[in-house]
């Protein structure tokens, strides 16, 4: 005789929050990497064309590809570390908000033009 779970038993199952925390923080890391690559690329002509993987798209192709690689690498690492854990979500969300705010700052023209070589 096999037992099946009732709906009330399924609601009582507590799942770890680590996979969600890993996805949120990895997204922020990927966004931050994009901002980190934008500032030197726009400020310096020598660095500007370095990440150009596709001539039709230009340097943006390399910046976005590297940001996506950073996202997937950090997500895989964090997911592996936290898949059965319950990390402090507040700290992760604050860190994510800070990284995303730094990304927005780094891609603001006024900010990266301040570093431009004359």
What does this structure look like?
The protein has 118 residues and is mainly α. The chain has one domain. It is 69% helix and 0% strand. Helix 2 packs antiparallel against helix 4 and helix 2 runs parallel beside helix 5. The protein is elongated, with a radius of gyration of 20 Å.
Instruction: Tell me the count of domains.
Output: 1
Radius of gyration: 20 Å
Q: Mean pLDDT, nearest integer?
A: 84
Estimated share of beta-strand residues: under 5%
- Major β-sheet profile: none
Report the count of strand segments: 0
Query: Given the C-alpha coordinates, what overall shape results?
Result: elongated
Distance between the termini: 80 Å
Proportion in helices: 55-70%
- The secondary-structure element order is HHHHHH
Poorly predicted ranges = none
Q: What is the number of helical segments per DSSP (H or I, 4+ residues)? A: 6
Given helix and strand content, the structural type is mainly alpha
